[in-house]
Design brief:
Oligomer: single chain
Helix content: 10-25%
Distance between the termini: 71 Å
Number of strands: 31
Radius of gyration: 23 Å
Shape: globular
Strand content: 25-35%
């Protein structure tokens, strides 16, 4: 069987990913993460001990064979840009590879920053045109999942689509917060609506709906033409989900790609995994899930690694071994540079350089880098922001009224703790 594919008048040899470009939209704040995004964009939020959320989309691109990547940034982008410069600078132009960081720089209009997701791409159209990729794989930089984009590219070319939209089947009434596709029996999209009150069902499964995952494939020339048309439309919000995709559904050929066809799973991952960790509850749960004996997301999968900035850290250290003062971690993930000095962590995740002092206790804690936890502190079901100094004897997670008074407490009882909140208690 030949591995070459037709593309217009030219013939593409080998994987389609090699001639594609991944364009990652990473400019959003993610306001539902509350104070976690006060100082950083959502894609830059830490996840899984040593990674950032954006590392999943970027790793999928690299693992799929894509070697040209661009990341559009906007909101409080310093920590994100610094992470990208440190961790993703291994792509080399002499090997026909590239990695470009594209901050909002008013390239088209000196009055406008990025007005929407489509405008973020349109404002960088000249850069895309110079690189001349055959296809654009458009990605959101704020979701956690493992996916082989090559399979989606193949479907796009084989079906002759103008746009291919990655979709996930979800219970119909859970799809009200997504862009939802109505498809015919061939998988062609016949309607696309943002956050419908009554989502349309799938033809063969009316109890399910096809939710857009914010992953799109376009032929580059077609996309640039559509972005120009949309930019000239004064009624448009310049957004893919609200404007571009519905227009193509009405006037072109849009098809749905099922996530389960390209999801990457190790032998231990039982069901396709995709998470929008856009709320404090969802963020806490996705991190704590990693402490399960068999977690739903396998970060130990060496066949599909999650690349990130490989910070140089010493090994984690556990000290003291007397009753009541024993350094230990049970059903937990402990990153490099951590010191657990006579404290106990249960079902918790500690990012790099966290320090637990004697007689401190964690249960269901997501601890970001460089957190110092004082003696006798007891923290249950919490997210602790980077660099926080937990004072000696602080108790969180045992008195809902007191927790809500001092910290950001969700309806599910998860407490977000920042240094600014603690400073107000002093």
């Amino acid at each position: 069987m030949s591995n070459s594919r037709e593309y217009g008048p030219e013939r593409v040899q080998g994987p389609l990913a090699r001639s594609a470009m991944a364009f990652v939209l990473a400019g959003g704040r993610g306001s539902r993460l509350m104070e976690l995004t006060d100082r950083r964009a959502k894609p830059a939020v830490y996840f899984g001990g040593k990674s950032r959320i954006i590392d999943f989309a970027l790793s999928n691109a690299i693992n799929s064979g894509i070697r040209r990547v661009a990341v559009a940034t906007q909101y409080k982008a310093h920590s994100l840009i610094r992470h990208l410069q440190r961790g993703w600078n291994f792509l080399r132009p002499e090997r026909n590879e590239s990695f470009d960081i594209l901050p909002a720089s008013q390239r088209i209009s000196e009055q406008n920053w990025y007005l929407g997701t489509a405008d973020a791409v349109h404002q960088n159209a000249d850069i895309i045109a110079d690189m001349a990729p055959r296809h654009i794989v458009l990605l959101a930089g704020d979701h956690v999942y493992k996916m082989d984009y090559e399979k989606m590219l193949q479907q796009h070319v084989e079906q002759g689509a103008d746009v291919t939209v990655c979709s996930m089947a979800v219970p119909r009434m859970e799809a009200t917060g997504f862009g939802v596709m109505k498809v015919d029996t061939t998988g062609r999209i016949v309607d696309f609506v943002e956050k419908p009150a009554d989502p349309p069902g799938i033809p063969d499964r009316p109890d399910l709906a096809l939710a857009s995952m914010g992953i799109y494939v376009f032929e580059t020339r077609f996309l640039l033409d559509q972005l120009k048309r949309d930019a000239e439309d004064l009624t448009s919000q310049h957004d893919f989900g609200k404007d571009l995709i519905p227009w193509i559904v009405r006037n072109g050929k849009a098809v749905a790609h099922r996530f389960e066809r390209s999801v990457v799973r190790s032998s231990s991952e039982l069901v396709p995994y995709w998470r929008d960790v856009g709320t404090v509850d969802a963020y806490w749960e996705a991190n704590i899930d990693l402490t399960d004996i068999v977690p739903p997301l396998d970060l130990f999968d060496r066949d599909w690694p999650i690349w990130t900035y490989a910070e140089i850290t010493p090994p984690a250290k556990f000290v003291h071994d007397v009753p009541g003062r024993r350094g230990e971690a049970i059903s937990s993930l402990v990153s490099g540079g951590c010191i657990i000095s006579g404290g106990t962590a249960r079902r918790s995740l500690l990012c790099t350089h966290a320090h637990m002092h004697s007689w401190s206790k964690l249960d269901g804690a997501v601890v970001l880098p460089q957190v110092d936890i004082g003696r006798y502190a007891r923290l249950t079901n919490v997210v602790v922001d980077r660099g926080v100094r937990i004072p000696e004897g602080l108790v969180v997670g045992e008195d809902p009224v007191e927790d809500a008074r001092r910290f950001r407490r969700t309806d599910r009882g998860i407490c977000l703790i920042t240094q600014a909140m603690l400073d107000k208690l002093a």
